[in-house]
Amino acid sequence: MPIFRIDESAIKDNEINISDETLLHHLMNVRRIRENDSISFFTHNQKLLACVIEINKSKISCAVENASKLLFPKPEITLVQAIIDKEPTETLLRLNIPYYVKTFAFFKASRSNFTLTEKTLQRLRLISLSVAEQSEVCFVPTIKNYNTLKAAIDEVQDCTMVTLSPHSKIIIASFAQEFEEGKDIAIVVGPEGGFIEEELETLEQSGSKNCALASGIYKSELAGFVAVSFVRELHASGI
Question: Is 88:64 a contact under the CB 8 Å cutoff?
Answer without folding.
Answer: no
